[in-house]
Amino acid sequence: MKIVYLLPCCTVSGGVAVVMQHANRLQARGHDVALVNQQNDRDTSWFPGQSVPVLTLEEYPAQVDILVATGWSTSFQVARLEARRKFYFVQSDETRFHPPESIWRHLTALSYCFDFHYMTEARWIQRWLAENFRHSAALVPNGIDPQLFYPCTPLQKKGNRPRVLLEGAIGLPYKGMAEAFAAVQPLDVEVWCVSSYGRPRPEWKCHRFFEHVPMEKMREIYSSCDILLKLSRVEGFFGPPLEMMACGGVPVVGRVTGYDEYIVDGVNALVVDPLDIAAATAAVRRLAEDRDLYLKLQGEGAKTAARWGWEQTIDTLEEIFTNALASPPAGPKPYGADLNNSIASLYAASIGEEDLQREVLQPPPPLSNSDRLCRRLQQQRWFSALADLMVRAYATLRSLRAGLRRER
User: Fold this and answer.
1) Where are the domains of the chain?
2) Contacts for 74 with CB less than 8 Å, ≥ 6 apart
3) Are 37 and 44 within 8 A, CB to CB?
4) Phi and psi, residue 156, nearest 5°
5) pLDDT of residue 352
6) Residue 190 pLDDT more than 70?
7) Mean pLDDT value across residues 358-369
8) Are the beta carbons of 23 and 53 closer than 8 angstroms?
9) Average pLDDT for 203-232
10) How far is CA 131 from CA 117, 122, 231, in A?
């Protein structure tokens, strides 16, 4: 099959990495695969073994069998490109990436109205697409590459204190990195951080920082740490906790969409409310102090990672594409309307035709007076010290209350 995936960008991200897995593994099975990037960037060197050609929109090939949209902005371009069958690979509810009531939030929702074949990586997205847009999406689960993620020699020998890894784009608030840093602040732990977008603030506890890490180097970072703390509030199917399990660590995660695809609280990880900083602090402290619990979760995590391979997923993907090509194309729409062209035209009219070939980012809303005050207070050392004191007092109070309940 001649297969094309349309990407919004080639930068380091979990979503792009999943598409790279699809593309390279399909190519290894003999299919003619290409990646087309909406941006001009072709650099995919961060993904190990990447051999699929990266093209621009101007280089879009002829006689494509399968064309796949991989994000909300790409779907509008896919509607305008030629292919025998068109797919939308939905990796999250991307409306949540935009501020409420912004035009981009509405346009993202509109992208799920296209008359494409739908597929997704998580059961919750299947349900969401069925309940909100009446799409029957095929399930193509994510996997983990055992050639990339396994326990290896740490970058730096572990000391007496537990080492906690915080992973996520600091510049995206819904990734919960500010909350994660607040959770480790009162703990006697060593903190490492990986971010693909944004750097830690000077007042945050961070002993070692990494950014734009090539994928094949991540196992060295995971293997150097004992605990992964990830408090993101928006996910589809997040890979880092699974990767941490494969490298011998134990995750503490926020209760976010998709976590239950492979995480069971108290079995292979600890799960907390992503906004409950005190609970996250307590969970990390619990793993640091309870060696038996840590070893139990560590062992079950390794078993979990071993169950999530890629080969069966690519078998499923090949079958989905083959069946789509074998089935007759859909008949004419009611009233003769061409739904896909209508939606694409509406999008072009909304944002301007010149913006159609690049990802559109919503500018941040203007700061309110309360936002300015909060930011100013966050920069004051006395305020940070007071906040830390209040967090500790609150955690102590919760512990005392829990103890009283147990005595009763």
Assistant:
1) 2-143+310-355, 163-308, 368-408
2) 6, 7, 8, 38
3) no
4) -145, 130
5) 63
6) yes
7) 44
8) no
9) 95
10) 16, 15, 27
State what percent of residues in the chain have pLDDT above 90: 68
Copy the structure tokens of residue 332: 């004419």
Sign of CA dihedral 313, 314, 318, 324: positive
How many residues can be counted in the chain?
408
Look up residue 170 and give its amino acid.
Answer: I
> Tell me, what's the pLDDT at 299?
97
Is residue 327 within 8 Å of 66, Cβ to Cβ?
Answer: no
Q: What is the DSSP string of 49-87?
A: T--S-EEEGGGPPSS-SEEEE-SHHHHHHHTTS--SEEE
Q: How far is CA 78 from CA 74, 86, 159, in A?
A: 6, 7, 51
Distance, in Å, from the CA atom of 46 to the CA atom of 225, rounded to the nearest integer, reads: 22
Q: pTM for the complete prediction?
A: 0.76
Same topology, domains 2-143+310-355 and 163-308? Answer is: yes
Element (H, E) at 2: strand 2-7
Both tokens of 196, joined, read 């693909």
Angle at 63 between CA 61 and CA 65, to 5 degrees: 105
- Between CA 63 and CA 83 the distance in angstroms is 7
pLDDT of residue 176 exceeding 80: yes
- Give the confidence band of 360 by pLDDT, cuts at 50, 70, 90: very low
Q: Which of 19-23, 114-118, 159-163, 353-357 has the lowest mean pLDDT?
A: 353-357
CATH number of 2-143+310-355: 3.40.50.2000
Asked if pLDDT for residue 389 goes beyond 80, the answer is no
Q: Which residue has the tokens 């999530």?
A: 308
What's the order of all strands across the beta sheet hosting 54-56? 54-56, 32-37, 2-7, 66-69, 85-90, 117-120, 138-139
Does 297 have pLDDT greater than 70?
A: yes
* CATH architecture entry for 163-308: 3-Layer(aba) Sandwich (3.40)
What pLDDT shows up at residue 331?
A: 58
CB 231 within 8 A of CB 254: yes
Contacts of 194 (CB under 8 A, 6+ apart): 165, 166, 167, 168, 209, 210, 211, 213, 218, 221
